[in-house]
Structure formats: C-alpha cells, structure tokens
Amino acid sequence: MPFTKMQASGNDFIVIDEFETLLIPDEKKPGAVRRMADRHFSIGSDGVIFIQKSKIADVKFAFYNPDGSIAEMCGNGIRCFARYMYERGLVKKEKIMAETLAGLIAPEVIIENGAVTNVMVDMGAPRIKRKDIVVSGDPESVLIGETINVDGEEYEITAAGMGNPHAIIFSDNLDSMDVKGIGSKIRNARDIFPPGTNVHFVEKVGRNEFKIRSYERGVEDETLACGTGICASAAAAFLNDLVDDKKILFHSKGGDLRVELETDDKEITRVYLTGPAEEVFNGEIKAEL
Predict the structure, then answer these.
(1) Fold of 130-274
(2) Closest CA to 8 of 74, 87, 100
(3) Which of 3.20.20.60, 3.20.20.70, 3.10.310.10, 3.30.565.10 would CATH assign to domain 2-124+277-284?
(4) Tens-digit pLDDT profile for residues 69-122
(5) What is the pLDDT of residue 253?
(6) What's the rounded Cα separation, in Å, for the pair 16 and 244?
(7) pLDDT at 287 over 90
(8) Predicted confidence band at 266 (pLDDT cuts at 50, 70, 90)?
(9) Which listed residue (32, 74, 105, 133) is catalytic?
(10) Catalytic residue among 105, 159, 226, 232, which?
(11) Inter-axis angle of helices 75-87 and 227-239, nearest 10
C-alpha cells in the first residue's frame, strides 16, 4: 500500500490517498493507524491522514491520532493535506474546501516562483462557550483565565475550541515546565474536560510574540507543534489582553507559525494559520495491517 510521509512544523504525518480507491476499510483503520504510527516497528508519525472524496466539499480530510482515535481537526495536518492535494493535481485550485469533523475548513496554498512555500488555513471562529468546547460548568459561560485545581495543584487556565478542545496556561518560565507531567494531569481531568483536552503552555517573549509547548491528546506526549493549539492560544492571548495586534507570531519547537485574527470588538470571528508543509518521502507498506 503506497503512502507519503509529510511534516509541518515538526508534526509528522502519514498520508494515505483514498481519493479514488478505499485502501483500508473504516473498521480496520484504528488498528492499522496504531501499527503504522509506531516509531519502533513501523513508519512512525504524530497522526495518519486519509484523503477521501466528499459529497459536500472538494475533498474529505479524515485524521487519526497515533493511538487510533479519530480527531476532529489538525492544523498542521491539514496544511500537509492541502499541499499534497495541490501538487498531485487532485484539486486544481489554490484554495481548497475540505470536509472535516470540525466542519468545512479552507486551506490555501501560497505559491512563489511556481512552488508552494506556505499554506494558510482559514480555521473559522474559535469556540469559547463551555458547551461548545465540552467543559464542565454553566454551558453558556466561558473559562478565561480561571484558577482550576487539578490533583491538588492550581493552574490558571483558558479554554478554547478549534473543532477540538484546548486548555491554555500562560507561563513566565516555559523552558522549566513539566509539559508531559502537568499536561497529562490536565488532559485527563475528566471532571473539567469530560472528553479530555489538548494542553498548551505559552510564554510571552515579545510584542505579539509567544513561545509555545504542547501536550497532545491522542499522542499522549509533548509534540513539536500543534496547529489548532496555536490557534486556540492566539485566541486565548487576545481574550486575556496579552496582544495589541491581530497578527501574532508563535515559536514552537518545530518552527514558527503565524496567526491572524479577525475580530468584531472582543469577539473573534475568524482565525487564520500560516506556515510551511513539506513532503519528506514516499514508500510502500505491507497491506496486511
């Protein structure tokens, strides 16, 4: 079975092209994903992207975490997906409409001198109300800069959704943060985040400029970058009055990503994520997964 390995900001993905032919039946996908994503015994990745036909958009983006669970969206993954679609000629336009579990998402490849240099993704509006993120408490209320007790420790958390849930903690000393330990505790605090959550630790390092480290649900570890998490963190920075401009730069371990917000007073109406996406190699794996 053919596959393509791609990466965006250090998030690496296996891309399986099912645009014309189903290669893995849906009921077998979770097990196949777990085996393919294993870094010791197989290809290894932070997730697996299946490219499929859609009845409501140009194409369908189906994303699986390495543990075999289905994710609603992946900001870095959809940039790889868009570049693959454009360069393979599966969609013959620069702006692509993709069906995802988070709704319709519109990535756009940026061309310079005939080559794709970046991909900008219209991620839509962040979800702020608890009911839309799936956070416990008053469903119509928000969780912005609120002190939460988790296993006897207090953390000031802002919650935002980008089709998937995110908890954001602003820190003054990101390098010493126990991202895996604290991230795992908050990710599994089911009394607060019933379906679990991604957790991000963010430090302001300049005017409208931040460093970020991320613990991702489904990977169950720190990753080099999380695109939806960076979008949620940009929204959190705006909601906590930590920025004075709508163009925000994030430094992740995997590289830099830029976010631009559209707002109507204090309401964020759209979030745009821009960054690179690269093809690493192509290969074949035994089909009997």
Answers:
(1) Diaminopimelate Epimerase; Chain A, domain 1 (3.10.310)
(2) 74
(3) 3.10.310.10
(4) 999 999 999 999 999 999 999 999 999 999 999 999 999 999 999 999 999 999
(5) 96
(6) 41
(7) no
(8) confident
(9) 74
(10) 226
(11) 130
For 220-225, what is the mean pLDDT?
A: 96
State how far the Cα of 98 lies from the Cα of 20, in Å rounded to an integer: 16
80 in active site: no
Residue 122: both structure tokens together: 């219209």
What CA–CA distance (Å, rounded) separates 13 from 68? 13
Q: Report the distance separating Cα 96 and Cα 206, nearest Å.
A: 34
Average pLDDT over residues 268-278: 97
The one-letter code for the residue type at 250 is F
User: Contact at 8 Å (CB) between 8 and 79?
Assistant: yes
Please tell me the predicted confidence (pLDDT) of residue 22.
96
Tokens of 207: 């005017």
Sequence-distant (6+) residues with CB within 8 A of 4 are: 14, 15, 17, 84, 279, 281, 282
Q: What is the mean pLDDT of residues 204-211?
A: 97
* pLDDT value at residue 41: 94
Say yes or no to pLDDT of 289 above 80.
Answer: no
Strands 11-17 and 2-8: antiparallel
CA–CA separation, 13 and 78 (whole Å): 10
Is 231 catalytic? The answer is: no
Residues, the chain: 289
DSSP category for residue 133: H
CB neighbours of 117 closer than 8 A, spacing ≥ 6?
110, 111, 276
